[in-house]
Predict the structure.
Amino acid sequence: MRCVPAEFVRRPKPLPCDLNLVAAFVLASTTLHAAPTRTSSARDQAIVHFNEGNEAFRRGDTHEAYRQYHTAWELHRTFDIACNLGRAEAELGKLTQAASHLAYCLDHFSSSPQRDLRAARERYSELFDTVRAQVSSLTLQVDQSGAQVFVNGANIGTTPLEREVFVLPGTQVIELELDGFQRLTREIPASAGERRSLELHLVPLHSTEPLEAPSPHEAGPRNDVPTHRVDSRSLALVSGAVLTAAGAGVGLGFYLQGAKLDDEASVLRSRIEAESASTPNPCAGTADPACARLNDTVDRRDHAWTTSTIGFVSMGVFGLGTLATWLWWPTAAETSPAARLPAFMPVVTGDHVGATFNGTL
C-alpha cells in the first residue's frame, strides 16, 4: 500500500509513509525473479531520490526537493512521486509541469479507504484546481497513430496522447509530423482556465486535398492566399486625382491673390491720379515712390494670374487624363495586350505640364 509523504498530509509520524512507499515497490515486484535486475535497481534508486526529496522539503529547500523528485520520476513513475513532484513544481512556478504531474497523481491515486489518504487526495485535488485555473488544457484527437506532436516547438510525445496537454495562456503553435503525410501546423489562442478539444486530420503527401489550415510556419507560399498589391491602373487613378486637385488648388489660390492685388493697384492708381490731376501721365519719367509701388503691385498681380492660369490648365489636363485612365485602362481581368484601349497618363516635369497617350485604336 502506498502513502503520500507526511510533509503534505501532516501525519505525525513520517517514517511509516516512507516505509509504505518501499512496501509498494516490493508489492509491485512480487514477480521480481522474472524481472531484469536493471528494473529492480531503478526502483531502488527511485526510492533513494524520493526520500532525499522528502528530506529537502523538510529543510525548506524546494529546488533540491524538485531535483530529487524529478530524478525519481524519471527512474520509476508512481502516483506518490507524481504528487510530490507536482507540489514542488507548483511552488517553483512551473505551472504546466505541475498540472501534468498532479493530473497523473490524481488519476493513479491509491484507492485505499484510509482517512489520511482520502484527506491527502483532497489536498492534492485542491492544489490541482488552483494550478489548472492558471493554465489552459488541450485535448488533441488525431486521426493517425504514431505522429510526433510538437507544442511551441517542444516534442510532447506521439499520437494517441494519453492525456491532455497543459500550456500557458497565449497563442499556441501545434505541429504534427508523420512519415508519408504532410506536416500540419495550427495556431490557436489559449486562455487561463480554458479547456479545448481539437480534432486534427493528417493529409497524405501525394494527396491533392488541401491542408486543414494555413499557417505562416509552413515552408513556401500558398497559392490560395491572395496577394494584396496596388496595380498600375489604381496608381495612375490615385495620382491623377491628386494632381487634378492640386492644379485646382493652385489655380484658385493664385486667382484670388491676383484679384486682391488688382484691387490694390486700382486704389493706388486712383490715389496717384487724384494727387497729380494737372499731370496727364504722372508716373512717366519720375521716381515717385507711389508709382514704384503701383508698378510692383501690377507685376505681382500679373504673375499671380499667370500661375493661376497654369494651375487651371493643369487641372484640366490631369482631370481628362484621370477620366481617360478610368474609362479605358484595362483592368486586371483584361490580360490580353490586344485588348488594351487608349489611355492618357499625366506627365509633370520641372518646366512642362502635359499628358501622354498609350494604347491602340
Notes: The chain has three domains: 1-133, 135-215, 232-358. The domain at 135-215 is CATH 2.60.40.1120 (Immunoglobulin-like). The chain has a mean pLDDT of 76. DSSP finds nine helices and nine strands in the chain.
